[in-house]
UniProtKB/TrEMBL annotation:
Organism of this sequence: Lentinula guzmanii
Keyword Heme among record annotations: no
Record key words, sorted: Coiled coil
Residue ranges of coiled coil: 29-80
UniProt name for this protein: Phosphatidylethanolamine-binding protein
Gene3D superfamilies named among the record's database cross-references: 1.20.58.1180, PEBP-like
């Protein structure tokens, strides 16, 4: 049996065949290695130019015009340096094997590029977008969503015989949720686990919102939305530890979690979780990323790998996104929450490095993450409602679907052929 490989139990790449067995493979490996060495050499030369320009920028701080010209040149050089760092590594079999076997180094631009490429090219993003459009989350909630990070959701296994047998045999107690799949209300009685796989090394802020767009509205004889969960100013980075996990205590420190409780007699509900990107302080750039990274290293009490533990003043200072003082959504305001209006008001979208422009893009969210799952009413919803939702004498809503007219009812029992 193949041993488990991870960052905790790493394993080095080995050639699939010995040298000399297949000369064509040996020659191809030499060409790839030579190309990598040439690009690495070019990147080192570029790094020296960047160091010299940084010194020049320090000396020109008093001359505003010259300083901005140097910063512009530095941005172009750093972008080129980033491209060379990726190109010099991504074709190496050892690097590709390392990323494919869950040994990703978050500080390596090549590793992050390959991981993002894998998400975009091997079906993860395709399945997500297919479900969002197939089930009309787009445009029912937002007119457009273009994710830039991979949001994972985990919940407990359903409480059934198969789960009990699995637990007895040492099986895991949580399961990853595929976008669009059905969950039971007992699985979401407690807040699900959120894992945000980002591809940027700087620390950016996101606003998490969980909504149900399928709550019956008797007045309009249609449906309205309900906010189950909200938390702004969540710091996310590719180098966060533990890898990409968002603490439940952090998520529940704003608008607290209300478990899904689909109403009896209604079709399935599409519970959607969004990580909305908060606008940048100025514009996302290589210069800003390097500046904040250098600034955080000067503080002994700051670790870029655990931004959730930063003190509030430093979190506001050393993140590349704007801090948003979004008010808590009260219980009376949860029902009828207008997500499009919220996006327009707070600018929780990124479009070419700029803030919100509602007249042009109409609240199309570019960036961030999204996930969705479905639930239908069952006999356990009443228990979830009583323990977590029923406050101030609230009564669980129940609906009856109108009887369908059977056009052939008069023909039933009549002989068709004589």
């Amino acid at each position: 049996r193949r041993p488990h490989i991870s960052t905790d139990k790493p394993k080095k790449w080995n050639r699939p065949i010995a040298e000399g067995v297949l000369p064509a493979y040996d020659e191809a490996l030499k060409i790839i290695t030579r190309d990598s060495e040439d690009l690495t050499k070019e990147a080192k030369e570029l790094g020296k130019k960047i160091d010299a320009l940084e010194t020049e920028a320090e000396e020109a701080k008093d001359d505003t015009e010259k300083f901005h010209e140097i910063l512009k040149e530095l941005e172009a050089l750093r972008e080129r340096y980033h491209i060379l760092s990726v190109q010099s590594q991504i074709n190496m079999p050892s690097v590709r094997w390392t990323v494919a076997n869950a040994q990703l180094d978050p500080w390596s631009p090549a590793h992050l590029h390959l991981a993002e490429q894998r998400w975009r090219g091997e079906g993860g993003l395709d399945i997500l977008m297919e479900r969002l459009h197939q089930m009309h989350v787009v445009p029912d909630l937002l007119p457009g969503i273009h994710p830039s990070l991979d949001l994972h959701v985990t919940v407990p296994y359903p409480l059934n015989k198969q789960f009990k047998r699995s637990m007895k045999s040492g099986g895991k107690s949580i399961v990853g949720v595929e976008p669009g799949s059905f969950l039971s209300p007992t699985q979401t009685a407690r807040a699900p686990g959120l894992w945000a796989h980002a591809w940027h090394s700087d620390v950016r802020l996101y606003t998490m919102v969980m909504l149900d767009p399928d709550v019956p509205d008797q007045e309009t004889r249609s449906f309205t939305t309900y906010v189950h969960w909200m938390k702004p100013n969540i710091p996310v980075s590719a180098v966060a530890e533990p890898r990409a996990f968002i603490s439940p205590a952090l998520l529940n420190s704003h608008t607290t979690y209300v478990p899904p409780h689909p109403q009896q007699g209604t079709p399935y509900h599409r519970y959607t979780i969004l990580l909305l990107p908060q606008p940048p302080k100025t514009i996302y750039s290589r210069n800003l990323q390097i500046l904040l990274k250098q600034s955080t290293t000067t503080h002994a009490d700051l670790s870029i790998s655990s931004p959730t533990s930063w003190p509030l003043p430093l979190l506001k200072k050393y993140t590349t996104s704007q801090w948003l003082d979004i008010p808590i959504v009260s219980d009376s305001q949860r029902r009828g929450f207008n997500l499009r209006k919220f996006v327009r008001e707070w600018g929780t979208q990124v479009n070419g490095g700029k803030g919100l422009d509602s007249e042009k893009n109409h609240a199309i969210v570019v960036g961030g993450g999204v996930h969705m799952f479905r639930e239908v009413w069952d006999e356990t919803v009443s228990g979830v409602f009583k323990t977590s939702v029923a406050k101030g004498g609230k009564i669980e809503e129940k609906y009856t679907l109108p009887k369908k007219v059977d056009r052939y009812e008069g023909l039933k029992g009549v002989r068709k052929y004589i």
